[in-house]
Amino acid sequence: MTDQDRVELKDVDLSDLDRFRDNRAWAQFDTLRREDPLHWNPEPAPNSGFWSVTRYADIWAVDKDSETFTSEKFVNLEEVDDDLMDIRRSILETDGQRHLAMRQLVAREFSPRNLMKNYEGILRELTRRTVDEALREPEFDFVSKISADFPIQVLARLLDVPMSDTGQLIAWGNEMVGNTDPDYTRHRLDSPESEKYKHLPFRSPTTQDVFDYGRALRDRRRGGDGKDLVSLLANKMPADGIPLSDRDFDNYFLLLVVAGNETTRHAISNAMLGLLRQPDQLRALRSDPALIGTGLEELLRWASPVYHFRRTATRDVEMHGKTIREGDKVVMWFASGNRDESRFADPYSIDVTRANVDHLTFGKGSPHLCMGNGLARMEIRLMFEELLPRLLDIDLAGDVTRVRSNFVNGIKKFPVKVAVRG
């Protein structure tokens, strides 16, 4: 960061979505880590404000301690009415034994051993198809042709749904995660109209379309012996003996549709953009493809596809000489922790030879560690292993546009021009 990029502490506002759209959040994170590592950020009504935690060590400590910092009061900045919490609760908003039992329903499918055994060959072939199709043109949008196309094909395979449905799944994911971006949704979270849909996740009527789609799949697969994720949710009993209710299934399926696509998509986009802007690192990966495997964690640190997750204090807590009160929102800015100079030397530079890149991208050490982290790692590795050796050259061919969100670090448009090896 240069002196021109610096933001005065009094000017920091992490609720200003336009700053994230314009990629101006990083200087604010720098200021907070340096000057105010536990920072109170007011919010527009009806929200009540939140504490920002921006240093690596503090984020890790909060995320590990689910007794003091619970997910039960929801995990993004929206403040959900008490009477609607159980209606909208997913595995993300569940702690303790119930959370563990719900994770175990599909956790085996996402284990590294199972992924290597059952999916790597299939996913490599899907990757090649995506790359082949994209590279037929000398100019294309990297997001639509590469980043969005590949993860959604993988998700369709895991859910066992027709490939013809992938466009709809992408649109639904955009609508949910981009619910503060006018290009992605007609039902913005920050619009008065959203009050009519406050009983639905993301305050979007589109959520009901996802629910209906998922329930139709479940009803057809009940009693079967399928191994796809929908069949597992339809037919397995959680370890705590409490079956999934219709609402449990709805919210679980919605999470799979969103998380199974969006995180990997934005990680691939941000990693590729970072490599274009630091071409020495791109050259290093192209000249020594073995570095793709070892450099993967560095790319994930750099990409930080999710800016934050929120917790809620269950008791008064002292931190950095301030008191977090019971009931206060506490926001862990993972993206900031991944740029913490006390943890990562020269954090704004990609270094694919960096050792021991113990980043926070998937929720390191947390009971809520992203279940799909192994799959995401495999998808990103396969994409760069298949794409980079095919390229003689790749450059930007226009402006990059970002999602207007302080939750997902997303790229909407990313035009590139390529030269391909013969």
Task: Describe the protein in words.
- This protein is of the alpha+beta class.
- It has a single domain (3-420), classed as Orthogonal Bundle (Cytochrome p450), CATH 1.10.630.
- The chain is 44% helix and 11% strand.
- The mean pLDDT is 93.
Structural class: alpha+beta
Uncertain runs are none
Largest sheet properties = 5 strands, mixed
Question: What would CATH call the homologous superfamily?
Answer: Cytochrome P450
Outline type: globular
Strand order of the largest sheet: 1-2-8-5-3
Number of strands: 12
CATH domain class: Mainly Alpha
End-to-end separation in angstroms reads: 40 Å
**What is the C-alpha radius of gyration, as a whole number of Å?**
21 Å
- Mean pLDDT across every amino acid position: 93
The domain count comes to 1
